[in-house]
Amino acid sequence: MRVALFITCFNDTLYPDTGKAVVQLLERLGHTVEFPLDQTCCGQMHFNTGYRPEAVPLARRFAEVFAGYDAVVTPSASCAGMVRDGHPILLEDKLTDRQPVPMYELVEFLVDVLGLTDVGASFPHRVAYHPTCHSLRGLGLGEKPLALLRAVRGLELVELPAADSCCGFGGTFALKNADTSTAMLTDKLRGVLDSGAEVLCAADNSCLMHIGGGLSRQRSGVRTLHLAEILAATEGEPE
């Protein structure tokens, strides 16, 4: 199976360790992962803010760069949703001679394609999972991330109160509606602190950045970590 990593511009710029964790994890599971150097933005930011004509060349380029792969894996539920749902709208019949890109968010690839829940991870910490809006409502990941976390050795999975409530980020929503975003974040932070978790994880670093900023400003001691980095971890395991 030819597998490619789509890192996304957000992760590439701010959270490169997440992309490294995806490669480390998939290689541990026996897969060779390619990283096409010509990849750029999927166009989600343009699409969501009304600049659809400007997003078309990005969608077209994405299809060209990732053509021929059996699976394209990304550690971003929002970008996976954009490629699957947004690109067909943008491109319409412009790519009728090419098959759609086989786009998978990491959890989908592990559980639905590889049929795995135990990926050989070890992470002895108390962890809460935040189901981001795109992962929960857009991709419908449901219990799959929790199944992966429950199989991690040493990990204590704790319940996050009001887990399915939005953290208030929403991309440009946090900028255009700062007061509302901050109020939503305050509710989410209360839930994280009430959970007693040491680590909060999710499938989107954008939401983790938003929540992590709030946790840091409160000096809570709770850290945020992408789900991929937990699944790639082997803490406490013999070398």
- The average pLDDT score comes to 92
List how many beta strands DSSP finds: 8
Overall tally of structural domains? 2
- Give the SSE order as H and E letters: EHHEHHEHEHEHHEHHEHEH
Spatial sequence of strands, sheet with the most strands: 2-1-3-4
Unreliable stretches covering 5 or more consecutive residues? none
The fold-level CATH name of the largest domain is: Rossmann fold
The CATH class label of the largest domain is Alpha Beta
Structure characteristics:
single chain; 239 residues; alpha/beta; Rossmann fold; 4-stranded parallel beta sheet; 12 helices; 8 strands; 48% helix; globular
Structural features, described:
This protein has twelve helices and eight strands. The protein is α/β, with parallel strands linked by helices and 239 residues long. It folds into two domains: 3-113, Rossmann fold; 126-232, Rossmann fold (3-Layer(aba) Sandwich), CATH 3.40.50. The strands form two sheets. It has a four-stranded parallel beta sheet with strand order 2-1-3-4, sandwiched between helices. It has a four-stranded parallel beta sheet with strand order 6-5-7-8, sandwiched between helices. Helix 4 (52-65) packs across helix 5 and helix 10 (178-195) packs across helix 11.
